[in-house]
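Task: sequence in, structure out. Protein: GNAT family N-acetyltransferase.
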Amino acid sequence: MSSQIHVRIADWQKDKADLRRIRETVFIAEQAVPPELEWDAEDASAVHFLALDGDYAIGAARLLPDGHIGRVSVLKDWRGLKVGDALMNAVIAEAERCGLKQQMLSAQVHASPFYERLGFTIVSGEFLDAGIPHVDMVRHSSQEPV
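Result:
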């Protein structure tokens, strides 16, 4: 992974343009998710994360107060460079810092092996979300102090 790539907690108000650009590119343009499904009221209360290459935002994710992780997205040119791992490790670390012992997400089926590598387990059958096959996954933090 390039030493230029790093992840930081984002500010929904200040970083909204970057967060929206990444999610619009990945979900709305590439995956044809309807905009009204992509944007919801939960963005305002979520903790957002940005992956950056230098100072250019290339990936995004969010963590909801109940431990749900979502909107994990990396721009196409940066896929395969462990950006998703860096994003997810930052999200998991923040969830644990907040005392969220269980993290949950709905994964696109093709991405489930990626999340399994990070300690998530599939806990549902396949279902369609925005026309894309998904499964629900859960990760339990170890009870050991970090």
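Residues 16-30 form the longest helix (15 residues).
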